[in-house]
Design brief:
alpha+beta, eight-stranded antiparallel barrel, 2 helices, 19% helix, 47% strand, globular
Length: 157
Amino acid sequence: MLSPSFPTCRFSRRALLLLALLLSALGLAGCDQTLVDPSDEAARDRLIGYWLRDYDEGPHHVRRLLVLLPDGKFRETVRAVDAEGKVSELANKGEWWFDGTNLKRRYLLMDGKAISAPFTPFATFELKFESNREFIGLDRVHKRSVRYQRVNDGTVL
């Protein structure tokens, strides 16, 4: 039995019950909110424009120009130069969206050719913004990171 100098637990239980009810009510009140955080829209808008990725892959020096358009479409031009100076170029198109964390692209044309039905390539990068002019994309599938830098609108390879 508790000594008279200690408060009884009855008050504490009531307080905890009221606190739990209040937190539950606040949690339910948040359920009507839209799934899109306004800051996600700001990040999406920041992505619109021309982005360049410049890197070496094996014996090739590769430049990728990614153009993210406001209507959710993208264009990608790829230019690879091998050790002997031979140049290869590709032009790709598709759709893009940003979910607040990941930049996702679905390719509809690769090298100017329509994609076959069972094969629809996607590219998904978890984004980390280094600045307004640069982001790092983490490719969790291929376990690599890629760096894109903003370039002037109208840039060509």
